Amino acid sequence: MAERSSPVRAAAVVTLTLGLACAPGRDAIAISEGTLVLENQSSREWRNVTITVNDHYRGGAPALGPGGRLTAPLRDFQSGFGHHFDRSRMNVYRVRVTATDVDGRPVELAWGRAEGERR
Q: What is the pLDDT of residues 20-53, one digit of tens each?
């Protein structure tokens, strides 16, 4: 016997599909267990990617392709004086990402507290 599709089953499939399509996307910048994850959610390559943590600690990559992910331990971020980010003594309160796309247009992302904002 061939299985027929019921209206309730069809409605459930449509509801599930719409729910997944409308679900909020992931953040482009995330911090988890001492690791920073940056995801290029655009359709264009980013070049000269610079990541600044807490205004002083920097890292980055020469390029990050569309849909690409950069994963870096926080301990790898370094200040201009050569000091490494120390998770045992510091918390991440702000991350700023700058880059340029393939056409030379600036890319800027931010995570955390805004400039001058207090806890």
A: 444 457 899 999 999 999 999 999 999 999 999 9
Question: How far are the Cα atoms of 22, 52, 54 from residue 112, in angstroms, in the given order?
Answer: 24, 12, 9
CATH number at residue 106: 2.60.40.2890
Domain extent for 78 = 26-112
pLDDT tens by residue, 78-102 = 999 999 999 999 999 999 999 999 9
The set of residues, in sequence order, having a beta carbon less than 8 Å from that of 11 and lying 6+ positions away, is: none
Whether 9 maps to a domain, the answer reads no
* Alpha-carbon span 100 to 83, nearest angstrom: 27
